[in-house]
Amino acid sequence: MSSLSELPALVLGPLAGKSEGSWQQAPPNKWTPAQIVEHLALALEMSATTFSTRRAKEPMARRATTLRETIGKVFTFGLGRFPPGLKAPERTTPQPRVDGPAAEAHFRSAFAAWEAVERELLPARAHDLFVKHPRLGDLTIGEWARFHLVHSRHHARQIRSRLAG
Known about the structure:
Layout: H1 7-12, H2 20-23, H3 33-53, H4 67-79, H5 100-121, E1 131-133, E2 137-139, H6 141-164
Antiparallel strand pairs: 1-2
Helix pairs in contact: 3-5, 3-6
């Protein structure tokens, strides 16, 4: 398994035992912890589902990377950060109101789907199966795992900040 085994504790740990009110607190025009967890669940679910639907495809070749994608990869994979000013893709934008328990259940389900992808497709398809990331271009299963780790760390900092405020 990848280093993603830490994701549930990283993302959900700070919220364990917290009231629904804690899941819903955020500065104006910012996502609540529940929305952040839902956003992470949507991203995990989308990549897991897409890899699962492609499991029977012939070996693939990576498409050429644009300059924007290359810069995004340097920030994400090299620095472990996101380029400033990025907005979440519409497919991973949570609804305006998300219940904490529903977000947690969705995250756990999406995480289980990702673990199944790794179990079923690695190591056989580690280098010849790709899913396009909207900002980073074609990524392998391992690259998506690294993305999800950096992405979750980024948002876990936001969750801890919301809970401290």
